[in-house]
Amino acid sequence: CNDKVIKPIVNMKRILLFLTALGLINTSDLLAQNTEKPSRWEIGVDALSLIDQNELPPYSLFGRFLLNPEGKKQIHLRTRIGFERFNLLDSSFWFGSIGLDYRITSFFASLGIQKEIMAFPKGALYVGGDIGFSRAEDVKEWTDAGTTGREGFENFTETKWRLSGILGYTHQLGRNFAISLESSLQGTNTKQNWDKDYINFVVIGPEPEIVNEQKSIETWNTKVQPFYQLLLTYRF
Questions:
Q1: Which end of the chain is more exposed for a tag (fewer CB within 10 A), N or C?
Q2: What is the pTM of this model?
Q3: Which residues have CB under 8 Å from 27's CB, separation 6+?
Q4: 171-225 pLDDT tens trace
Q5: Dihedral, CA atoms, 196, 202, 205, 209, nearest 10 degrees?
Q6: How far apart are CA 180 and CA 171, in angstroms?
Q7: Is the Cβ–Cβ distance between 157 and 134 less than 8 Å?
Q8: Exposed/middle/buried for 48, CB within 10 Å: 0-12, 13-18, 19+?
């Protein structure tokens, strides 16, 4: 019975302490805003790509630089660089060799600009645009036909140019942190290439299947992304 009474009291004290600390942070922020110039640098990560909720590489860094610290409507230069690499080598299987090496790599870089259109005490609504380039490669190599049924390789590459119009809102959290949610209208040019050269022994018939194929596809596409980026950033 005592635990049922004590635990809610302890939880309530923790909540009150958290709210008190949050109130002190906000109060100090209001005082600081009257004496300090706005931070010019901002750096952070995209929470959506970390949980695979958009097309951008998860391991990337986003940055903004304030171009007009004395201006009424802030203008930022913005950039993002990302990279991802995944290797699943034949030697990584604890139960023994399976004769397969599998590698995925991707790279992304973008540059853009944004401008405030409406400012609030703790946030701002802004518009902007980015131009981005990405390249991804997916390589499979089969080295042991006895375990995989194949011998040879398959290589897939994709390059993409992306032009994005952006509508976003940023909200200040504490003195130096901020969260920003962005939507975008995108136009993309995508080039995909396949290069296959392998022998497939798992077939019905007396002879194995020999696959030797090269193919390329280029596409243009436009789409609206309601949740383009969810940025968690640090200002300094």
A1: N
A2: 0.72
A3: none
A4: 999 889 999 999 999 999 999 999 999 888 877 767 788 888 899 999 999 999 9
A5: 10
A6: 6
A7: no
A8: buried
